[in-house]
Amino acid sequence: PLVLGIETSCDETGVGLVSGGVLLGDALASSMDEHARFGGVVPEVAARAHLEAMAPMVRTALQRAEVDLADVTAVAVTAGPGLSPALQVGLAAGKAYALAAGVPLYAVHHLAGHAAVDVLDHGPLPERCVALIVSGGHTSLLGVGDLARDEVVHLGDTVDDAAGEAFDKVARLIGLPYPGGPAIDRAAREGDPHAIAFPRPLTGPSDPPWTFSFSGLKTAVARWVEAHDGPIPIPDVAASFQEAVADTLARKAVAACLDQGADTLLMVGGVAANSRVRGLVEERCAAAGLTLRVPPIRLCTDNGAMIAALGDLLVRADVEPDPLDVAADPRARLTGALLHGAGHGA
Ligand code: ATP
Ligand code: FE
Ligand code: MG
């Protein structure tokens, strides 16, 4: 197969071409800068940017892969979850390319795509694993079986801020630039991670084990900064906050693996780039006898290759494609069945 993947759930227009588990080429455009002055992604602005970037990104990806649209044997596109106007553009484009090329269409779930992308660099996933998806938009633990057989379940999510969002908000609080994650990572190198005992949210014995909450941690940092006399010790605050996030993520992810009987943890999302998150998760996985898989950072964030990788798995497993009238689902849930099929009664 040769699968064209299209991703437009948020502010990235991603296109990828995957064949038999190999990434042949991809292209990515982002409208991030256009949203900066609004303080968050504006759905209509993102949709318009997707509309403008779509054809150029498809052309670029085809060129990089050195293939033609006529060589494509299936199209996979994100149908949800995500921003409705943004999803509509990608789905409409996916349908148009499928129709033009006369090939089947697969409408897929964004989070399943995040999990699927690791096959491109590290080969097939084990029979069972847990995926920790940590970015500016998500903090989710997934139980992952055979992606081609819809075996993905949501174990838990954040009830408020995503981990990346917490990095961004805390950075702003202590005067570091946006995006906050890399800035905090850098500042923390000079700091003491045990200088300030920030809370590890929802890690108590009676707390829901797979649920995250980062807004209280952000408030704890704000309170500490307010109460502190004199100049803020930025490196110590950064290191201590980062340690609290890393410790919380590592504890819950490792516990989820043990609970699910999974010997592999998959970590993706922009926050997977954080040096302490990676370091601590790696350490805890090793101590628990778990294998940690992290895709290359470039493929950890939203991209088209992940959707093509998932589509490629579906095609190779002979999964029924979706009808061309399949609908986008901005609130798509993983219920053990992938979104694939969800638009028509699954
Ligand atoms: P999605 O739609 O998948 O949630 P997103 O655009 O919201 O995507 P990503 O692009 O995956 O998120 O990642 C961006 C987030 O990752 C930002 O919140 C950023 O602060 C965070 N991040 C990036 N690098 C680091 C780092 N080194 N440490 C901590 N956080 C980081
Ligand atoms: Fe994403
Ligand atoms: Mg992004």
TrEMBL record:
<keyword id="KW-0408">Iron</keyword>
<dbReference type="GO" id="GO:0005506">
    <property type="term" value="F:iron ion binding"/>
</dbReference>
<dbReference type="GO" id="GO:0061711">
    <property type="term" value="F:tRNA N(6)-L-threonylcarbamoyladenine synthase activity"/>
</dbReference>
<dbReference type="GO" id="GO:0005737">
    <property type="term" value="C:cytoplasm"/>
</dbReference>
<keyword id="KW-0479">Metal-binding</keyword>
<keyword id="KW-0963">Cytoplasm</keyword>
<dbReference type="InterPro" id="IPR000905">
    <property type="entry name" value="Gcp-like_dom"/>
</dbReference>
<feature type="binding site">
    <location>
        <position position="168"/>
    </location>
    <ligand>
        <name>substrate</name>
    </ligand>
</feature>
<comment type="similarity">
    <text>Belongs to the KAE1 / TsaD family.</text>
</comment>
<keyword id="KW-0819">tRNA processing</keyword>
<dbReference type="GO" id="GO:0002949">
    <property type="term" value="P:tRNA threonylcarbamoyladenosine modification"/>
</dbReference>
<feature type="binding site">
    <location>
        <position position="274"/>
    </location>
    <ligand>
        <name>substrate</name>
    </ligand>
</feature>
<feature type="binding site">
    <location>
        <position position="114"/>
    </location>
    <ligand>
        <name>Fe cation</name>
    </ligand>
</feature>
<feature type="binding site">
    <location>
        <begin position="133"/>
        <end position="137"/>
    </location>
    <ligand>
        <name>substrate</name>
    </ligand>
</feature>
<protein>
    <recommendedName>
        <fullName>tRNA N6-adenosine threonylcarbamoyltransferase</fullName>
        <ecNumber>2.3.1.234</ecNumber>
    </recommendedName>
</protein>
<dbReference type="InterPro" id="IPR043129">
    <property type="entry name" value="ATPase_NBD"/>
</dbReference>
<comment type="function">
    <text>Required for the formation of a threonylcarbamoyl group on adenosine at position 37 (t(6)A37) in tRNAs that read codons beginning with adenine. Is involved in the transfer of the threonylcarbamoyl moiety of threonylcarbamoyl-AMP (TC-AMP) to the N6 group of A37, together with TsaE and TsaB. TsaD likely plays a direct catalytic role in this reaction.</text>
</comment>
<feature type="binding site">
    <location>
        <position position="181"/>
    </location>
    <ligand>
        <name>substrate</name>
    </ligand>
</feature>
<feature type="domain" description="Gcp-like">
    <location>
        <begin position="24"/>
        <end position="308"/>
    </location>
</feature>
<keyword id="KW-0012">Acyltransferase</keyword>
<feature type="binding site">
    <location>
        <position position="302"/>
    </location>
    <ligand>
        <name>Fe cation</name>
    </ligand>
</feature>
<dbReference type="InterPro" id="IPR017861">
    <property type="entry name" value="KAE1/TsaD"/>
</dbReference>
<keyword id="KW-0808">Transferase</keyword>
<feature type="binding site">
    <location>
        <position position="110"/>
    </location>
    <ligand>
        <name>Fe cation</name>
    </ligand>
</feature>
<dbReference type="Pfam" id="PF00814">
    <property type="entry name" value="TsaD"/>
</dbReference>
<feature type="binding site">
    <location>
        <position position="185"/>
    </location>
    <ligand>
        <name>substrate</name>
    </ligand>
</feature>
<dbReference type="InterPro" id="IPR022450">
    <property type="entry name" value="TsaD"/>
</dbReference>
